[in-house]
Write a structure and sequence with these properties.
The complex is a heterodimer.
Chain A (H helix, E strand, L loop, with lengths): L2 H26 L3 H21 L3 H19 L7 H22 L7 H6 L7 H30 L1 H6 L4 H23 L4 H13 L5 H26 L3 H17 L3
Helix pairs in contact in A: 1-6, 1-8, 1-9, 1-10, 2-3, 2-4, 2-8, 2-9, 3-8, 6-8, 9-10, 9-11, 10-11
Chain B lengths: L11 E12 L2 E12 L3 E5 L6 H9 L6 E6 L5 E4 L13 H8 L4 H10 L15 H14 L4 E5 L7 H18 L2 E5 L3 H7 L2 E5 L3 E5 L1 H6 L1 H7 L1 H8 L8 E2 L5 E2 L4 H7 L13
Parallel strand pairs in B: 3-7, 3-8, 5-6, 6-7
Antiparallel strand pairs in B: 1-2, 1-4, 8-9, 10-11
Helix pairs in contact in B: 2-4, 3-4, 8-9
The chains are: A mainly alpha, B alpha/beta.
């Protein structure tokens, strides 16, 4: 097997390993649009990364976390629904990202690779970063699991029972932001939400407990990466979209589960 | 069962003083004071928009009042039963798992709590498949697993049929007696409230009147709020007595003490009325 394919597989597995378990919370908390909005801000991070001469990945993580925290604060603002705020922040950031990208002179940014991912081009260094980030997120999620689950079921009840609701929510948003930054490498800005939502939704039909749903979600995500890469290698289809289509296939199959 | 007037102030579990709450300039609560003592059932009644849930939230620390203070007895453990609990259909969760969210009790304790609320038969059912009455019982079990000194119940019989309602109130009353804990309850259901409560606070943005259920049901502000019909129907729940209460429900005049004991006895104030 070619080296680049092994690297791509390792990168994809790292992302699926965290986007699956975190994605179940996105589904339970009906935050699919939130994930989408965060990913739109990522392009601004890429552009800022180039502008400041740092790793685009770091720029993305920084901007997405900042956007997540800002949304967390704005969510407390009365009078506007969260989805309206998401629409404002996401598209303002995307537009700003496109402007900054266009204004950077001397550097040609391969917009397509950021918008749709370029998993076949990941370096060994990238794989190291992805695995490092994935393991950190996974460890944090395991630690947050119970309080996060409790406040997902009922925030006020969790608060009365002593869960530091605000802190846990912010921590969750930061984790989500990191996963968006990681997944961008694999499926691109446009398709990031799919890695969070589709494996989790497909896992629902098979799960009896919250924990098993997270586990199945990770497994389905990993299978999707494998099948997408296989299709890409065999039929020369674009890799990121192939992974997403494979995940969607798993979802369709799950619909027939009695 | 001691009457509220016989309690010492150190028995107070949770106390709100002069609470003021407003949303976007609209006053929801002003100058409201309520306290709950160990072994006592305090019920908040009032029309929609009277601020009942806001008061409960302020007392639980879920909402910060513009002014006023909320004091908890140090180390107080609260079991809270929210008004509504709807778990997204996408979240697979059995009743048993739900009960293990708030605390980490062993399987034995979980089942015991379910038995106490008579819901052990649904331990392995998904939360989304149980009935309204079962949901209320399960939430009560979760509150009990915290071994509370105080139960805070926001409309505990919501979505429960009539027989179930009366059973649930009896259950709450029995738990209160068994464990000698305080209960703060919001209710719409005046009839049952009158039968199962020690102390009623009638709320309409301010405290209209408060005291023993019977005294409250005769209070002019209560009559004005709920109408003559309801007020006179509720009088059926009270027995004959020959003394009067002041606004706080304290007996004034020369009511004999035996009569008061009987009158204020929360365990036996269904007063010849069978709730079946």
């Amino acid at each position: 097997m070619d080296d680049f394919l092994i690297r791509a597989g390792l990168a994809g597995i790292a992302v699926a390993l965290v986007s699956g378990p975190l994605g179940v919370f996105v589904v339970w908390r009906r935050m699919a649009y939130f994930g989408g909005a965060l990913s739109h801000t990522a392009l601004l991070g890429v552009a800022l990364g180039f502008l400041l001469g740092v790793q685009p990945g770091l720029g993305v993580a920084f901007v997405v976390i900042a956007a997540a925290l800002m949304l967390g604060v704005l969510n407390g603002v009365k009078g506007l629904a969260l989805d309206t705020l998401l629409g404002i922040v996401a598209h303002a950031a995307l537009a700003l990202g496109l402007i900054v990208t266009a204004m950077i002179e001397g550097v040609r940014i391969d917009l397509m690779s950021y918008l749709f991912g370029d998993i076949l081009a990941v370096s060994a260094n990238d794989v190291g970063w992805l695995w490092g980030g994935a393991l950190v997120v996974l460890a944090a999620l395991i630690k947050l699991w119970n309080p996060l689950l409790s406040l997902t079921v009922h925030a006020d009840l969790a608060h009365v029972e002593g869960v530091p609701v605000r802190r846990v929510e912010i921590a969750f948003m930061v984790l989500l932001a990191i996963v968006v930054a990681l997944a961008m490498k694999v499926v691109g800005i446009v398709l990031v939400t799919s890695m969070l939502v589709i494996p989790a939704a497909a896992a629902r039909a098979y799960a009896r407990t919250p924990e098993s749903m997270a586990l199945f979600s990770a497994i389905i995500g990993i299978w999707s990466v494998g099948m997408g890469l296989w299709a890409s290698y065999t039929y020369d289809t674009p890799a990121g979209p192939s992974i997403v289509v494979a995940a969607a296939g798993f979802f369709v199959v799950s619909l027939f589960k009695k | 069962m001691p009457t509220p007037t016989q309690h010492k102030s150190e028995d107070i579990l949770l106390e709100a003083r002069d609470i003021q709450v407003s949303f976007a300039g609209h006053t929801v609560l002003s100058g409201v004071s309520v306290s709950v003592r160990a072994g006592e059932i305090v019920t908040l009644i009032g029309p929609n928009g009277a601020g009942k849930t806001s008061l409960v939230k302020a007392m639980l620390g879920l909402l910060v009042p513009q002014s006023g203070t909320v004091t908890r007895k140090p180390g107080l453990s609260i079991g809270y039963m929210p008004q509504r609990l709807q778990i997204d259909a996408s979240l697979p969760m059995t009743v048993r798992r739900f009960l293990q969210l708030g605390t980490q009790p062993g399987q034995g304790k979980t089942l015991k709590a379910l038995k106490e609320v008579r819901a052990d038969h649904i331990a392995n059912s998904p939360m989304q498949s149980i009935s309204g009455g079962e949901m209320q019982r399960v939430m009560l079990a979760r509150a009990l697993l915290r071994e509370p000194d105080l139960l805070v119940l926001d409309e505990p019989v919501q979505g429960v049929d009539i027989t179930g309602q009366s059973e649930l109130y009896k259950l709450i009353n029995a738990i209160r007696k068994d464990r000698n804990i305080g209960v703060l309850m919001v209710s719409h259901d005046l009839h049952v409230v009158m039968a199962q409560t020690d102390h009623v606070v009638c709320l309409n943005q301010h405290v209209c009147c408060a005291g023993h259920p019977q005294a409250v049901s005769q209070h002019p502000e209560f009559v004005a709020l709920f109408g003559e019909d309801i007020a006179s129907t509720l009088a059926v729940y009270a027995h004959q007595h020959d003394h009067h209460h002041d606004l706080d429900g304290h007996v004034v005049g020369d009511g004999c003490s035996d009569e008061c004991q009987h009158d204020d006895d929360g365990d036996d104030n269904t007063k010849g009325h069978d709730h079946g």
